[in-house]
Design a protein that fits this description.
alpha+beta; 8 strands; about 20% helix; single chain; about 130 residues; four-stranded antiparallel β-sheet
């Protein structure tokens, strides 16, 4: 039986940024929920923003880069957030302004990174979309 009280999740967007076979991930800083875990960069959608607009704004604030947002790829959820992931191309080299660090990780290694639940669900969804040989 479902809970009669509708739980409103915070809407958040994140970027899947590929460079060759590597993907950009950001490490959450000390003092934040999920500190030390890795995530796809992005952030909250503000009132009146479209998801793509929020992602461009967040990537400028967090990574000091302009972004070209492409197609929606997957959604992850946990008890507090709905995380929508988009394919993104960056204009410029990202800098960790709000994260402990950034890393380019081989896409085959994403499953091994400690990630918050919604990011992990996105990794699982993206892996299931890849054609298998």
């Amino acid at each position: 039986m479902s809970d009669p009280v509708e739980h409103t999740r915070l809407r958040v967007v994140c970027a899947f940024v590929a460079r060759g076979s590597s993907v950009l991930v950001a490490q959450r800083p000390v003092g934040h929920p999920h500190a030390g875990m890795w995530e796809f960069p992005g952030g909250k959608i503000e009132t009146g923003e479209r998801p793509e607009e929020a992602l461009v704004r967040e990537l400028l604030e967090e990574l000091n880069v302009d972004a070209q947002v492409g197609a929606w790829l997957a959604t992850g959820v946990d008890e507090n957030i709905q995380l929508d992931c988009y394919n993104v191309a960056l204009v410029g080299e990202p800098v960790a302004l709000e994260h402990a660090m950034l890393a380019w990780v081989e896409s085959t290694e994403l499953e091994r990174l400690p990630m918050p639940p919604a990011d992990s669900q996105i990794v699982t969804a993206l892996i299931s979309l890849k054609p298998r040989n």
